[in-house]
Amino acid sequence: MIIILKPEATKQDADEILAQIESVGLKPLYMPGTERTVLGAIGDERKLGSLHLESHPCVDRITPILTPYKLVSRESHPADTLVDIGGAMVGGKRFTIIAGPCAVESPEQMLLTAQAVRDTGAHCLRGGAYKPRSSPYSFQGLGKQGLEILHDVSEKVGLPAVTEVIETEDVSLVEKYAAAFQVGARNMQNFRLLKALGKSRKPVILKRGMSATVEDLLLAAEYIVSEGNPKVILCERGIRTFETATRNTLDLNAIPYIKQHSHLPVIVDPSHGTGVREYVTPMAKAAAACGADGLIVEVHNDPKSALSDGHQSLDPDQFMRFMDEIRPFVQAAGKEL
Amino acid sequence: MIIILKPEATKQDADEILAQIESVGLKPLYMPGTERTVLGAIGDERKLGSLHLESHPCVDRITPILTPYKLVSRESHPADTLVDIGGAMVGGKRFTIIAGPCAVESPEQMLLTAQAVRDTGAHCLRGGAYKPRSSPYSFQGLGKQGLEILHDVSEKVGLPAVTEVIETEDVSLVEKYAAAFQVGARNMQNFRLLKALGKSRKPVILKRGMSATVEDLLLAAEYIVSEGNPKVILCERGIRTFETATRNTLDLNAIPYIKQHSHLPVIVDPSHGTGVREYVTPMAKAAAACGADGLIVEVHNDPKSALSDGHQSLDPDQFMRFMDEIRPFVQAAGKEL
Amino acid sequence: MIIILKPEATKQDADEILAQIESVGLKPLYMPGTERTVLGAIGDERKLGSLHLESHPCVDRITPILTPYKLVSRESHPADTLVDIGGAMVGGKRFTIIAGPCAVESPEQMLLTAQAVRDTGAHCLRGGAYKPRSSPYSFQGLGKQGLEILHDVSEKVGLPAVTEVIETEDVSLVEKYAAAFQVGARNMQNFRLLKALGKSRKPVILKRGMSATVEDLLLAAEYIVSEGNPKVILCERGIRTFETATRNTLDLNAIPYIKQHSHLPVIVDPSHGTGVREYVTPMAKAAAACGADGLIVEVHNDPKSALSDGHQSLDPDQFMRFMDEIRPFVQAAGKEL
Amino acid sequence: MIIILKPEATKQDADEILAQIESVGLKPLYMPGTERTVLGAIGDERKLGSLHLESHPCVDRITPILTPYKLVSRESHPADTLVDIGGAMVGGKRFTIIAGPCAVESPEQMLLTAQAVRDTGAHCLRGGAYKPRSSPYSFQGLGKQGLEILHDVSEKVGLPAVTEVIETEDVSLVEKYAAAFQVGARNMQNFRLLKALGKSRKPVILKRGMSATVEDLLLAAEYIVSEGNPKVILCERGIRTFETATRNTLDLNAIPYIKQHSHLPVIVDPSHGTGVREYVTPMAKAAAACGADGLIVEVHNDPKSALSDGHQSLDPDQFMRFMDEIRPFVQAAGKEL
Fold first, then answer.
1. Interface test with C, best of A214, A244, A247, A252 (most C CBs within 10 A)
2. Domains of chain C
3. Closest residue in chain D to residue C71, using alpha carbons only
4. pTM exceeding the 0.90 threshold for the entire prediction
């Protein structure tokens, strides 16, 4: 860690901090400059956290040398991690498609949609029972009943089910009904929830928060993995920027960045990442091209009547064309659909 | 509500949608243009939510006429709301100071800090027992023990206590120990938590999320109020932008906007809003000047040894000068400190 | 155009505005609601600009129905436009590669780089003679001498040259030496420059500004086209967001958006869009996959000694692999490299 | 400067870079760590720019220790700079009001507005002759005729005139007619223009770009000052963020930051910073409170008929109340209006 002192810091201030660095077992370095003094700490700098040097009145800035996450970093674990969602593998040579409606609305809607996505080649079924919505007057999901419908349909069509969990107290319930948890963008930093999921044995699809940096996302994953659950799948779903032409700005730069810095698989959500039905297929192709391990995509048997996100959902015919159109890009990326 | 159809929409498409508008009891309007057809719906447009017109394949865009929130809007309730935090009033002519450390660390630290802020004129005591932190390796708060310390110190010094609640299951526990709940930026859209707080009788300080628009903030408040708890205090604490010179970008434009659109009181957090100790006082003055109803500010008896946020905390002497310096601006704004 | 009045607006206010709408030849519409009155104007709403209705004290908001740009819109010109850069076509079935160094540094550097990119299959040569740099202490380009070197090398290797113009007074000089102009992100709204380029007969590559919406970009293109030069190529090169892991956030959503709303060709700059050499190839693949018409990419014969942007430049060997790696994605997109 | 090497860098790579550091006269430092090697360079690190170390394939990141700007920094020049605009001082104890219409529209409009703002106590008159507008179909300003009107009215009412210059070739013309130049947000990084203004003897009001960090703004000022013109006034006018409730997000954090890092005076534009007439006065108060040296504010004799920005302009009566309302805040800040 590099510690840049304020111009007014004295030699005595520097010595005090150097002694603190030594006290936690790191090697201190003193670098007096012409205008500023710089200090260094060599060794596992995560130990320095306990010193709270950033609060020291003589410290101007601190530059870490190592990444703040460890278990999810590629440096600590060079080989790609593969995650098994009820038999569907994510990572490595696979390109995994998780498809289904935004929300579970009824047994009929789920069954029709699930049959359609299975017949077209999806590997997992998605569907939300708990829906976080900006307005209290919007449809909030069917709750436990939704989980039951999802589970029944999942069994019937033979696709593992993925569904969102929004609260710690729901973890054990959701775990019973689904093959994998999904953590939504609004809960990416719900750390209590992340810790609870870290104690589960089922995989977690962790969506990037709307204002989260990729480093924040990796730190959120570190919460889950450090509690004992290594089965984390990251998901890029767009960030909030000044651009209003699309619902979010899909940050595909995050894919090669994550591949370089982490061993975890990463998928893309082109439905939320664009918010526009017509852009879902082109952005799905782009995701495959830049190295994503799969997609989570909204499909509804009748988008016009969908209770949420219908404007960004594909209907079964569109999903069939979607699969046909992305296939050559998946193959060009050296993966199997 | 104004519904702009896609260029390819036919008269039949328009008629279908007009019939739907009529079916929920609104007055439909048909406005054929030279290039596009526009439809209108007159009446309480919140009823249109159930139609999910945004999902209709012929609909290009929808422009609401009314605000999506209702109970928190000034149109529905023109007079300013005052909220009572254990005897300290927020709103109206008052300018309320909530001061204390980022986190409860020990009985000594809390007592020393609490005595200092009380003696200098603060109205409420803050201190976090549950700390949401980006990294799992950072200090996470003392939990229940922290609540007990906070409560004891609060009684001793005679200041009502404000503390963060991060999960629904903690609501009843926190309610026992604190005079008011604080909802942090990361939980502003934890809707389950908001609903639970809506069933409490204690006030809620609702902090704006890092990527939340002011409208999102007002909708989050609507969640609480619509469950029956009208005691909501909004809090501007900075948003995430490209600017890295400060920890967040304090969006003071939000203050006059909220005052115009809502009857709820609004306070400002200049500590998180800047992340830099030296900028806390100038931005507190600015907050008073543009119409805020108070401040929530981090004070620590020894910032250098603080377990979190020490770099943005004032020490007791700095807090004394802070109070002296903001007073003339509070008075110029026609309020009482 | 839809005009939403403030709650306090009277019938008389509405009548006054309706009369103004009629006075410019549009059909006025009066839609009194229960809480708000809404007015409409049917016809070519661009005529309403002269009324400045947004300044009217009774007007709350205005929602346009049509796009503010016209000549560059796909509605006005459904077929794709192809642009010829000195023999290299951009648009349609072509996938055009413009490669070369950030800046012209010397005849040797340009020649070595130009030969390498030509031999590997690039269609145009890039190289900046005028470099806008954040700091006055950074290398600012060779100016006229740089143009001469670029021109000589371009002739020698037989690739048309593309170079940035940063000021109106340079337009005629740059026009003599280059086959196409490039307008940098910082000049996207230098409207005097855009108008001057609108009077040229040579093509213009217009880069999106760091804080420009796609609509702003299309309006900037409208400046050039409305002055008489239809040869505009749009370029997505990343926007500025809170994410600092990459130099910019490459907004590939813009590609399908532009393809839907405009007939102009659009290329992508993965070098500036990422700022990281290792991410250039994956993002180039993604650009090809989502429908871009080509790429502008930084290549330098010796990136380590480059006077600017060396960290994001490919060397000749890397560029060779780059071309090999993107080819299958270009073909999957139905285009020819 | 601190240079963090990539994990794969060898001792030989480090030695090569250390030799380069020494070759430009700086003291090199070698800090081998357990996971990464870190290098340092002690002395005036601006000399390192010529080495382009950021392009070196073994370099991961570079952390500067000093600010990249020098002449405008408070470290180089601790005392506040005062700038004289035709007799009106900006900086120090003064709080300077620059008021007038967005655009010069006619002699009558300018005269009526100028008399009103002078009678109410403004110190300078603003008015644009060249208007950069997003759309080519919007009013673009009266050009030279506008400058003549502005100059005549300025003489008549006895207020120094401030006007925008948008192009290098206009500098000498604008200099003849105005007491100070204004550089708009879109031109903040038009470096040719900045250099030309650096050769003028007249003051320059430099507005922050919509996506410019404060450091970018200070570097832009460095361009002007390093050419020989020290009379630069910085202007915060809002940045572009995801928030759409206001036209821009006024970043008042920038004021204490600039005061800490630079000796130049800084003013605030609450008209563009909010885009809403009703928020201009509260945000002007906030600007005074946090330490700004003045305001530039849009006033129009008849905002309803303004050719641009009428929705954010004050009329003469509103401006009178504005001056009355901000006065106590200016006084509380220890300044004179």
1. A252
2. 2-63 (3.30.70.1140), 83-332 (3.20.20.70)
3. D136
4. yes
SS3 for A222? helix
Residue A176 burial class via C-beta count within 10 angstroms: exposed 0-12, middle 13-18, buried 19 and up = exposed
Tokens (6 digits) for D154: 């300025």
Are C99 and C128 in contact, with CB atoms under 8 Å apart?
Answer: no
SS3 A286: helix
Helices marked H in chain C — which ranges? 11-23, 107-120, 144-157, 171-177, 191-198, 214-226, 254-261, 270-274, 277-289, 316-332
d(CA D109, CA D127): 11
CA gap A328, A288 in Å, rounded: 10
Instruction: Determine the Cα–Cα distance for residues D239 and A244; give it in Å rounded to an integer.
Output: 16
pLDDT tens, chain A, 337 aa long? 889 898 889 999 999 999 999 998 888 888 887 778 888 888 777 777 778 888 888 888 888 888 889 999 998 899 999 999 999 999 999 999 999 999 999 999 999 999 999 999 999 999 999 999 888 988 899 999 999 999 999 999 999 999 999 999 999 999 999 999 999 999 999 999 999 999 999 999 999 999 999 999 999 999 999 999 999 999 999 999 999 999 999 999 999 999 999 999 999 999 999 999 999 999 999 999 999 999 999 999 999 888 888 889 999 999 999 999 999 999 999 999 9
Helix axes C277-289 and A277-289, enclosed angle (nearest 10)? 140
Q: Are D192 and C140 in contact (CB under 8 A)?
A: no
Under an 8 A CB cutoff, do A251 and C243 touch? yes
Chains touching D, CB cut-off 8 Å, 3+ pairs: A, B, C
3-state secondary structure of A43: coil
Residues in chain A with CB shorter than 8 Å from the CB of B248 are none
Size of interface A-D (CB pairs under 8 A): 53
Subunit contact B34:C44, Cβ cutoff 8 A: yes
Cβ neighbours for C332, distance < 8 A, ≥ 6 positions apart: A285, A328, A329, A331, A332, C288, C289
Give residue D72's region: left, alpha or beta (phi > 0; psi -120 to 50).
alpha
3-state secondary structure of D238: coil
pLDDT digits (tens, 9 = 90+) for D315-325: 999 999 999 99
In degrees rounded to 5, what are phi and psi of residue A236? -85, 125
Residue B308: in which H helix or E strand, if any?
A: none
Closest A-chain CA to C259: A279
